[in-house]
């Protein structure tokens, strides 16, 4: 692994919600590897900071101001691949994670990305980073578990009551330094929405746990 003090030739800007668990994943990865980055706090209701993007979710990581990485797992896999091997550019690596559009069971358009849990290691480095036969499979298993299960436990605990939801969004608004109207709207509309979402998530998780 290339140490952070050897230099870093990419300018990274992370568009995030402060309390978004998927954004926290990316920040943790960047901090762990000592990669410098700037943060743009996105208003979670209005999202005007993303008006330039057709992809309206966070996190988004902009590389050198022109290359857009979407989805926390794609961001981590792309950067990890780049850290391991500098033989390919970020754009070449990103091509390994194709965007896939489909409709979910409710008929809503959804976007996913192929191979998003795979770090693209060539044969010469595979043994170094995946010394055991099951190492890669274990990595993919736990990364999927974090996305499919762990992060969904957070909202029901952070937004348990309307008061706790308001307190959380008050923190988000203060951190984001939004304008008066945008902050007020984000705090009260966002808190109400996340409290309702957390209730649905809690019911869903309880149902899965009893099956």
TrEMBL record:
GO terms for cellular component: mitochondrion. GO terms for molecular function: prostaglandin-E synthase activity. Pfam families: GST_N_3. CDD domains: GST_N_mPGES2. SUPFAM superfamilies: GST C-terminal domain-like, Thioredoxin-like. Residues 14-79 form the GST N-terminal domain. Signal peptide: none annotated. It comes from the Eukaryota. InterPro entries: GLR_AS, Glutathione-S-Trfase_C_sf, Glutathione_S-Trfase, Glutathione_S-Trfase_N, PGES2, Thioredoxin-like_sf. This is GST N-terminal domain-containing protein. The lineage of its organism: Eukaryota, Metazoa, Chordata, Craniata, Vertebrata.
């Amino acid at each position: 692994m290339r140490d952070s003090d050897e230099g870093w030739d990419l300018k990274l800007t992370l568009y995030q919600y402060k309390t978004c668990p998927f954004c926290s994943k990316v920040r943790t990865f960047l901090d762990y590897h000592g990669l410098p980055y700037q943060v743009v706090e996105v208003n979670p209701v209005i999202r005007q900071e993303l008006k330039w993007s057709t992809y309206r979710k966070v996190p988004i990581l902009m590389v050198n101001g022109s290359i857009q990485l979407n989805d926390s797992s794609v961001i981590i896999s792309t950067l990890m691949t780049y850290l391991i091997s500098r033989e390919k550019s970020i754009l070449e690596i990103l091509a390994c994670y194709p965007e896939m559009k489909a409709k979910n069971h409710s008929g809503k358009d959804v976007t996913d990305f192929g191979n998003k849990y795979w770090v693209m290691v060539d044969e010469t480095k595979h043994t170094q980073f995946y010394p055991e036969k099951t190492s890669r499979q274990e990595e993919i298993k736990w990364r999927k578990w974090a996305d499919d299960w762990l992060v969904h436990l957070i909202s029901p605990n952070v937004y348990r009551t309307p008061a706790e939801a308001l307190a959380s969004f008050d923190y988000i608004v203060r951190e984001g330094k939004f304008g008066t109207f945008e902050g007020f709207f984000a705090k009260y509309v966002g808190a109400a929405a996340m409290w309702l979402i957390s209730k649905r998530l809690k019911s869903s998780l309880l149902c899965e746990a009893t099956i």
